Amino acid sequence: MDMGVSVMHRNIFGAASTMLLRGLYIVLMHIALTFACPRGCLCTEKNGVMAVHCTSRNLDKIPSDLPEDTVSLLLDSNRITRIPNQAFKDLYRLQELDLSKNAIEVIEAGAFHGVAEGLRLLDLSSNHIRSVPKEAFSKLKAKIRLSNNPWHCECTLQEVLRELKLDPETVNEISCHTSVQEEHTGKPVIQVLDSGINFCNFHHKTTDVAMFITMFGWFAMVISYVVYYVRHNQEDARRHLEYLKSLPSTQITKDFDTISTVL
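RESULT FIELD:
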């Protein structure tokens, strides 16, 4: 009987110890996450997936102290204005990045270097983006949302969009806020491109016209200078001829004799 009670006590003690250790582990993990988490953000981990929630935290830039094992990063509804080069370079496990509903105007060429190939979702909707460098989205395989931005429709945007995997649910909300061809303003970019419009051809034509105007301007300047030079010399020759006519005939003969001698 005493043996049974002793075994039961050991089992109860073992179970209590296990629960205590689990509780201590949870507390320690919570403390570790609290210290590793950017100020004002909330970090959670579930099944080995680290999620960092920085939604509506009045941030004006991307935090620099993000946990390196972040898988999901929510930075939506803040006041971020730019994405600098290598802003997420240490986040080697990053798969989801939400930057929607900010005030982003500038995306630098190397903004997503180091994470582009691992990203599965990139949300840049509802910002102030007018254009992006072609290099910014190189190697990007993620589904991307670019809707509700004041895009300027021109050759670079066309080349960028052709390389991206756009979210089919929001693709028709990517519209031309302005355009190199005014008749496309306000229309969905994809609709314009599908109609056969090629902004790059228009760009080349515009460049050719600019070069022609420049060359014509230089040619006009050269012609004007030649005309001025000829007229100026004609005026000098006329004045010299009138001067010779005004001289006595003897002096004219002497002048011609002098010229002949020199020749």
